[in-house]
Design a protein that fits this description.
2 domains, 3 helices, 3-oxoacyl-ACP synthase
Length: 150
């Protein structure tokens, strides 16, 4: 059980690290493009290319900032804790799907199973919060019954 939560936690960390790496590479590429543009351009073309590179840098900086926020959110999760009710860090098994309440990272796999990594602030995370095994909630006309919480 603890091993499963540790694997899911690590998958989320990997997801965040990949986003951070991609954003950092984008920033470096935009900065390189800006520097290359200054060597071969003049006038308006120079300003346009430089502005586009700056916009790309800003977009990647925003993505890096968001990834950092996800990393901070993960740092508040202790995968060794056992949860009796649904809260951040819980693995929730329902009659319809399996969830890891952590960050919104989409489908992740552990021990041959697929889990949906969701934020506790997501619509389904809000519906599940505080429920115990045996509890039910309704989302988009579908009834979910919580079978177990790890």
């Amino acid at each position: 059980m603890n091993q499963l939560k540790k694997q899911l936690y690590q998958q989320c960390l990997n997801y965040v690290q990949q986003r951070m790496d991609a954003a950092q590479q984008g920033i470096e590429a935009a900065q390189q493009a800006s520097q290359d543009d200054t060597k071969s351009s003049a006038g308006d073309k120079y300003e346009t290319g430089r502005e586009m590179a700056q916009q790309e840098t800003d977009r990647n900086m925003a993505q890096l900032n968001e990834a950092n926020k996800l990393k901070v959110a993960l740092s508040h999760i202790n995968p060794a804790l056992k949860n009796d009710s649904v809260e951040t860090g819980s693995v929730v098994i329902t009659n319809a799907a399996k969830f890891y309440v952590s960050i919104s990272a989409g489908a992740i796999s552990a021990e041959g199973e697929t889990y949906m990594a969701i934020s506790s602030a997501s619509p389904i995370g809000v519906k599940m919060k505080g429920l115990k095994a045996g509890g039910e909630f309704n989302l988009n006309g579908k009834v979910y019954k919580i079978e177990s919480i790890l």
